[in-house]
């Protein structure tokens, strides 16, 4: 490993740093979205970067790169997502921010029928260096329309890639990779991770899109975590260690492509699999992993594959209901006990 | 606006090529009993012709499901288009898109698009790319009267207006969205009026008159190139055939109406005018038409002599950088 200077950095600052470094490196990156700077057009009154993004992930970018490259948009997701896709087709790398992924409904056509399909239906004639930044996740009392996970909607669509960083290190590396990709990539930030810190290299680096990583070695069972659920799996693994169960934790990092090979290799070692996914269960990424492992590694399994997921409901508002909705370490531990027949 | 003889001949050639291409492609698909969606724009030729006469390959165009005319006027190769529609590997898009999805980035053709209104923001994006680069490129967003009640079209006009982007919103009002008459779907007589809401010029043009379209488009494109922002051009025109192959338009419009519009046929009127003004002569027109017929024969021959797409092409072009872990799992289709 090369000697890289690292320091503790939050997930939010990691997103910001990846954007800054890539926009410096590549003058042909344009960023657009709602309130990504704030107070648009009021520089003459002394108002600049009023918000720095609804979650401050884009703070400071407009001062550095100017209002031509950091564009606040009206609340017109269909138009600005489509515009970002069109500019990408015309050869300018674009990044659009969809404030909450729940809002995908108003611009879904642009992602489904244009971003995902243009490269294929035009026979490779059109290439889209386009990234959609968006955020997911329950836990902040924002209820049904600002909290959903829903990435499985996009996994289902051929032509798109989707990454789900679980910490600051993976956030910076995956965003850098997305900003250098010539395929459209959706970057799902989990709202509960913004304040989480870990060691992150100062210089820029890429993590390959479509590769999972093992974040805890174990021998008895494989826990697959997605986004925030990776930390839930790690917490559960500590609790399970006290019960004599040595769990391996795989951090999925990408909801399309899904790194089945990595998961299967782990299952061939541990012979048991639990997938922890904050998304609703029907037709989910977790369901897809379970089906694929069942098809391809049935002989390696000593127990049925189990899933820990949200219930098939919208995200509720009241704290107690919301906490019951989100998978936690206790539910993971309970499920693992079931896998072992306890 | 003064048009050179060379440009006049080019405009005539474009209109006739569009008409001959569409009728020929439609007939060839039928003769081969191919399944293939085709939407004809016959009758509307003056619109893309008059607009694209002002463009170069560096300018952009985003099209609709009724896009052959846009492609041809933008310079896309008709052999490739014919091969695409006849489902050959040598098609513009390797036989993966068909009539409704012809794109050719070497000509700035961002693609025909099967979702009504969906391609409009793509043209806005291409205009943003031009503005970012600091060039004088423009982008044309073609759409029909059926698209003007789609939210994304309005959002796109608004965004282009506040950002002063070099884009022309070219509405081909052919009076029908499938079988739904424009006067039913839209509560105003002129769609161009909607430009007022976005503080941009809105211009009504006779879409059966290539000269009128040429003049109006020239002004709008000049404005866009000068950095003055977008224009909404409403070209009133008529499609002679149905919405698509299955559709008999007589089920929703009268023969009298059809005859009235055909009496103003764009190609016929163009010929009358150039002959009357003496800018082109009969033999020039005849020679051009004959050459185009020959070009169509060549295009069909080219397609017939071309191979079918290889089955392995099913799995290519989904991604620039294809993920092996998932796409690899479809390889069993060929083993």
Layout: helices, strands, pairs:
The complex is a heterodimer of chains A (342) and B (335).
Chain A: E1 6-10, H1 11-25, E2 29-33, H2 61-65, E3 70-72, H3 77-89, E4 93-98, H4 108-115, H5 118-121, E5 130-136, H6 151-155, E6 161-163, H7 168-178, E7 185-190, E8 197-201, E9 213-216, E10 221-225, H8 229-241, E11 247-251, E12 254-256, H9 260-270, E13 273-277, H10 285-296, E14 306-309, H11 319-325, H12 329-339
Parallel strand pairs in A: 2-3, 2-4, 4-5, 5-7, 6-7, 10-11, 10-13, 13-14
Antiparallel strand pairs in A: 1-8, 6-12, 9-11
Helix pairs in contact in A: 1-7, 3-4, 8-12, 9-10
Chain B: H1 5-31, H2 46-52, E1 60-62, H3 68-73, H4 78-85, E2 109-111, H5 120-133, E3 139-144, H6 151-162, E4 167-173, E5 176-177, E6 180-181, H7 182-185, E7 202-206, H8 210-225, E8 231-236, H9 255-262, H10 266-277, H11 282-305, H12 324-327
Helix pairs in contact in B: 1-10, 1-11, 2-8, 4-11, 5-6
Order of helices and strands of chain A: EHEHEHEHHEHEHEEEEHEEHEHEHH
Tally of individual domains of chain B:
1
Q: How many angstroms separate the termini of chain A?
A: 43 Å
Order of helices and strands of chain B: HHEHHEHEHEEEHEHEHHHH
Q: What distance lies between the first and last C-alpha atoms of chain B, to the nearest angstrom?
A: 62 Å
Mean pLDDT of chain B: 96
- Biggest β-sheet of chain A: count, sense, barrel? 7 strands, mixed
CATH topology annotation of the largest domain in chain A: Rossmann fold
Outline the biggest β-sheet of chain B.
6 strands, parallel
The computed structural class of chain B is alpha/beta
Features:
heterodimer; A: 342 residues; alpha/beta; Rossmann fold; 2 domains; 7-stranded mixed β-sheet; 5-stranded mixed β-sheet; 14 strands; 34% helix; globular; B: 335 residues; 6-stranded parallel β-sheet; two-stranded antiparallel ribbon; 8 strands
């Amino acid at each position: 490993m090369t000697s890289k200077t690292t320091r503790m950095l939050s997930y939010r600052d990691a997103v910001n740093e990846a954007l800054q470094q890539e926009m410096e490196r590549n003058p042909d990156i344009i960023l657009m979205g709602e309130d990504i700077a704030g107070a648009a057009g009021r520089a003459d009154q002394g108002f600049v970067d009023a918000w720095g993004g609804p979650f401050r992930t884009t703070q400071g970018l407009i001062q550095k790169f100017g209002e031509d490259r950091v564009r606040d948009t009206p609340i017109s997701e269909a138009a600005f997502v489509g515009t970002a896709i069109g500019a990408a087709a015309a050869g300018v790398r674009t990044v659009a921010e969809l404030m909450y992924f729940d809002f995908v409904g108003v611009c879904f056509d642009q992602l489904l029928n244009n971003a995902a399909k243009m490269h294929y239906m035009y026979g490779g004639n059109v290439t889209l260096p386009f990234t959609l930044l968006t955020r997911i996740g329950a836990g902040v009392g924002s209820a049904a329309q600002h909290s959903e996970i829903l990435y499985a909607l996009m996994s289902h669509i051929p032509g798109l890639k989707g990454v789900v960083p679980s910490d600051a290190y993976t956030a910076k590396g995956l965003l850098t990779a997305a900003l250098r990709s010539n395929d459209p990539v959706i970057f799902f930030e989990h709202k509960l991770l913004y304040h989480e810190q870990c060691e992150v290299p100062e210089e820029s680096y890429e993590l390959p899109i479509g590769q999972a990583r093992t974040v805890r070695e174990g021998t008895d069972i494989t826990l697959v975590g997605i986004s925030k659920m990776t930390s839930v799996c790690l917490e559960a693994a500590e609790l399970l260690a006290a019960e004599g169960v040595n769990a391996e934790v795989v951090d999925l990092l990408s909801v399309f492509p899904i790194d089945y090979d990595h998961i299967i290799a782990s299952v061939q070692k541990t012979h048991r699999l639990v997938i922890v996914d904050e998304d609703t269960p029907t037709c989910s990424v977790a369901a897809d992993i379970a089906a694929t492992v069942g098809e391809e590694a049935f002989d390696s399994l000593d127990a049925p594959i189990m899933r820990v997921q949200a219930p098939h409901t919208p995200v509720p508002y009241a704290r107690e209901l919301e906490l019951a909705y989100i998978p936690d370490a206790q539910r993971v531990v309970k499920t693992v006990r079931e896998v072992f027949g306890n | 606006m003064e048009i050179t003889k060379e440009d006049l001949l080019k405009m005539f050639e474009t209109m006739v090529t569009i008409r001959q291409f569409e009728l020929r492609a439609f007939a060839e698909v039928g003769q081969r009993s191919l399944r293939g969606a085709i939407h004809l724009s016959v009758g509307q030729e003056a619109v893309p012709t008059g607009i694209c006469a002002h463009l170069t390959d560096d300018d952009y165009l985003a099209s609709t499901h009724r896009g052959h005319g846009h492609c041809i006027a933008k310079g896309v190769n008709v052999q490739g288009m014919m091969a695409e529609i006849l489902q050959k590997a040598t098609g513009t898009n390797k036989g993966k898109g068909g009539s409704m999805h012809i794109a050719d980035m070497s000509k700035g053709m961002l693609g025909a698009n099967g979702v009504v209104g969906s391609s409009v923001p793509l043209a806005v994006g291409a205009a943003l790319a031009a503005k970012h680069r600091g060039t004088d490129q423009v982008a044309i967003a073609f759409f029909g009267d059926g698209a003007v009640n789609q939210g994304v079209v309005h959002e796109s006009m608004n965004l282009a207006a506040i950002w002063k982007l070099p884009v022309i919103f070219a509405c081909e009002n052919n009076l029908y969205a499938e079988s739904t008459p424009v006067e039913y779907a839209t509560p105003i007589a002129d769609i161009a009026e909607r430009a007022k809401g976005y503080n941009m010029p809105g211009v009504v043009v006779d879409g059966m008159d290539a000269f009128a379209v040429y003049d109006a488009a020239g002004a709008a494109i000049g404005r866009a190139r000068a950095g003055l922002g977008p224009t909404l051009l409403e070209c009133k025109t008529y499609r002679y055939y149905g919405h698509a192959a299955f559709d008999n338009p007589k089920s929703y419009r009268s023969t009298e109406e059809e005859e009235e519009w055909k009496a103003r046929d764009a190609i016929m009127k163009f010929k009358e005018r150039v002959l009357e003004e003496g800018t082109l002569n009969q033999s020039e027109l005849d020679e051009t038409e004959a050459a185009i017929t020959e070009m169509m024969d060549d295009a069909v021959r080219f397609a017939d002599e071309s191979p079918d797409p290889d089955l392995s092409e099913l799995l290519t072009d989904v991604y620039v950088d294809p993920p092996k872990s998932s796409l690899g799992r479809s390889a069993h289709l060929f083993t």
